[in-house]
Amino acid sequence: TPPETPRFLSLLLDELYVQTAVWIVGERGRPKVVATNTQRIEADNWESRIEAGDRSFSALDEDGSVGNLHNVVLGLSSLYLTPTGDIDPSVRPEVKNLCKELDLKAIGFVSLPQALMNKLKNDEGVPPTVILLSVSDGKVTVSLYKIGMLAGQATIDTDEIVGELEATLKSWKDIEVLPSRMLLYGTDAEKLEELRN
Asked: How many CB atoms lie within 10 A of CB 5?
């Protein structure tokens, strides 16, 4: 019998939800998702993230997708990262405890905006120039990328999104020409549509 294709776990952590996935390396070395599950977080705290992560992995394992997998790649919202892209020191012990409680071994992490940038680059063939808007509970993280490189980042409130976004973009004085497109992402479809309008 041919050897079984190695499977990997990922765990995405955000303010509002956790998302788990089992994936394999597919054609041309690209990841191919086998199964995924998303769980909303009851409260914005790490105990709730642990509980949601446990529910999510349990739901994934109903068909045996997870099995004895323990190595995980973490996907982290920019809320949990420093401006230079490292895990925020105040969050590091929480992430470590979450992994311990869920019997996981973190083998790496990626920021969600950087993962999106990588996908856009693979899809389009060139490093993208774009403004990413990550929508969370009452906040939007604005990430401006020029030719695939982070050129500015800020977190603003959703209450006055138009005015705050305009002020944020104008505050980046060293950016002469802004990208021609903005991409919104998050799990709350209603909020995304509201902000898009």
From this structure: 10
Nearest alpha carbon to residue 136 among 82, 81, 94, 184: 184
Per-residue pLDDT tens digits for 78-92 = 888 887 788 999 999
β-pairing, 182-185 with 17-25?
unpaired
180: nearest Cα among 117, 127, 130: 130
Beta bridge partner(s), residue 18: 13, 39
User: End-to-end distance of the chain based on CA atoms, in angstroms?
Assistant: 54
Whole-number Å distance between alpha carbons of 15 and 150: 22
The torsion angles phi and psi of 118, rounded to 5 degrees, stand at: -65, -45
**DSSP 8-state code for residue 103:** T
Summarised one tens digit per residue, pLDDT across range 11-53 is: 999 888 899 999 888 887 778 888 899 998 988 899 999 999 9
Q: Where are the beta strands (DSSP E) in 17-119?
A: 17-25, 31-40, 71-76, 105-111
